[in-house]
Design brief:
- This protein is α+β, with helices and mostly antiparallel strands.
- The chain is 33% helix and 19% strand.
- It is globular.
- It starts with a helix and ends with a helix.
Length: 568
């Protein structure tokens, strides 16, 4: 973990503020038009990645085009651009086997193609609304959110280009975010006793203390993964520091994550879900069995490398790579079973499998002992979490904490307190997903998911010290007061990249979230820890720490409330 801390600190030093470009767009209030009114909204801009990026050689930060969907001509252009992008999908699908023709720099996935068709349908609905002299503002919002998510697939949202002069300011906190460090107040902010309306991000939870956290997510049973032997299908090809790959069993696809987040994610997703947020379902697997396949090890280091480009004005002066280190593909192998039933330790397996014993020997196909491979049956992995792919879900792309529309949402500012309480520090845009869920009627429902919450229950100060599933060093405090005890700021908790939703959170946002956190019971917390693989002794430690952290939050918020009353 010390090596990870050093790497992350270097990442912070070399990175400038990761903030989404915020365009001036009309708010929902600006767009509201009474059905009987003939006055239509003046302006509502969306952006969409341009089809002419195909073959231009750009890998990131591709060309975008603006559309004002209040204008007939612009809606027609928007529709035409969507059609061009869908045609590119068809072209790439046909040319996929011919690398000289297919564009590797501008891939359009099946999910993005579905999202483009969704945009096309919404655009047609808006035109129909205009014909009837009515406007459904929700359709504008959906187009904005889905378009932005599509675009983020083609932007460097992890490390944007860095100006040389900003490196040192970034080093001293210009990148990371504390909860409440740039507190904002909003004219339309609701009092503590009221809740925001249900949204694509959050829905008001009911009877929290009665909700089940062992099975979780409204289920009545768990899948027994210990009896399943999976087949390897694909390597992990996204960003991130933790290894993983994809498998299938009986034609059902799954994603495997390996490493220190294996227990934290199944626990935290259960807590986050019953408090009203959309999140993916992770399950802890003590012993994952996978049919031996050479590609497990050969393709283990297939994740994307994060480019770091440093500029002086418009001139690039340095180019480097982050997350380019080699991951040991045998680290989470517990043992191997041969076809004759004999078990081998990972050391024995590695000794027999590889002809040369260099650090990166598994990267080379001709270095595998093919005769020995014929005797291998199953590879067993430990420190595993598993995610089942859901057939009716289409993943569009990320969504940003730094979008001005999102910063104005109390449910997202308030989520910052929940993340801080759990120690979940890695709240980045690329850990979020916009997902289209197909209902029984064949219609798509838009949802914003907080999709990766495995970084928690440990130290949560990325600049100085972080750890995951490190319960003995999980601190007892979350908040402290600032501005002469009038507002909150997190205590030794911050995100590794800019999170403006968390920064903007104020005491009122925290009080709103705390009333829900306070309804969680000991049984619920311990049940979630049990199914996530924590021993009874570990459960006692985690529960005790969470209660201390909750009491700290209570005392800080009460002090602010008392001081505010006295000042009036």
């Amino acid at each position: 973990m010390k090596l990870l801390n050093i790497s992350l600190l270097l990442f912070v030093v070399l990175t400038s503020c990761v903030s989404s470009t915020i365009r001036d767009t009309a708010s929902v209030e600006d767009l509201k038009v009474a059905p009987e009114s003939r006055q239509l909204p003046r302006q509502y801009l969306v952006q969409l990645v341009r089809a002419d990026n195909y073959g231009n050689g750009l890998k990131i930060d591709l060309h975008m085009k603006d559309f004002d969907l209040t204008q007939v001509s612009s809606r027609e252009e928007f529709n035409n651009e969507i059609e061009k992008l869908i045609d590119l999908y068809k072209l790439e699908k046909n040319e996929g086997k011919n690398l000289k023709q297919a564009s590797s720099n501008f891939p359009i996935s099946k999910d993005i193609k579905i999202a483009l068709e969704y945009l096309k349908d919404l655009n047609m609905k808006i035109s129909s609304d205009y014909d009837r002299q009515t406007v459904d503002t929700e359709n504008f919002e959906k187009i904005y959110e889905v378009s932005e998510s599509i675009n983020m697939n083609y932007k460097n949202i992890v490390v944007p280009p860095i100006q040389l002069g900003r490196i040192f300011s970034t080093m001293f906190g210009g990148l990371t975010s504390k909860l409440g460090e740039n507190t904002r107040t909003f004219k339309d902010q609701l009092p503590d006793s009221e809740d925001p309306q249900d949204s694509t991000f959050w829905r008001k939870p009911h009877n929290i203390s009665q909700q089940d956290t062992y099975y979780g997510f409204g289920r009545k049973k768990l899948t027994d993964y210990s009896q399943m032997v999976f087949n390897y299908t694909k390597p992990k090809t996204g960003y991130g520091t933790h290894p993983g790959f994809k498998v299938e069993y009986n034609n059902q696809d799954y994603k495997i994550r390996l490493g220190e987040e294996a227990r934290v994610a199944p626990f935290e997703t259960r807590i986050i879900s019953i408090l009203g947020y959309n999140t993916l379902i992770f399950e802890y697997v003590k012993d994952l069995r996978v049919k031996y396949n050479r590609k497990i090890f050969l393709e283990y280091n297939s994740r994307k490398v994060i480019p770091i480009e440093i500029f002086l004005g418009k001139q690039k002066v340095l180019e480097a790579k982050y997350n380019n280190h080699f991951l040991n593909p045998f680290r989470y192998v517990s043992h191997v079973t041969l076809k004759n039933g004999k078990n081998l330790s990972v050391e024995e397996f590695k000794e027999n499998l590889l002809l040369k014993k260099t650090k990166k020997a598994s990267k080379y196909e001709d270095n595998f002992n093919s005769e020995f491979e014929k005797t291998v049956d199953e590879v067993h992995f430990s420190h595993v979490s598993i995610e089942k792919f859901v057939d009716n879900q289409t993943t569009v792309g990320p969504w940003s904490w730094n979008d001005e529309k999102h910063i104005r949402r109390q449910e997202l500012r308030g989520y910052g307190l929940l993340a801080a309480w759990l120690g979940n520090f890695d709240a980045r845009a690329d850990n979020n997903r916009v997902i289209l869920i197909k209902n029984d009627d064949g219609q798509y429902v838009l949802r914003h998911f907080i999709s990766d919450v495995g970084a928690g229950l440990g130290k949560s100060n990325p600049v100085f010290n972080i750890s995951i599933d490190d319960i003995n060093h999980f601190r007892n405090k979350v908040l402290k007061t600032k501005n002469h005890d009038k507002d909150i700021v997190s205590y030794k908790y911050q995100t590794p990249t800019t999170n403006k939703c968390f920064e903007a959170a104020n005491a009122q946002d925290a009080q709103w979230m705390f009333k829900y956190i306070d309804q969680l019971t000991e049984v619920q917390i311990k049940n979630a820890l049990t199914v996530a693989g924590f021993s009874p002794e570990e459960q006692e430690i985690v529960y005790h720490k969470l209660m201390l952290r909750k009491e700290n939050i209570r005392q800080v918020l009460q002090k602010i409330k008392t001081d505010s009353a006295l000042s009036h």
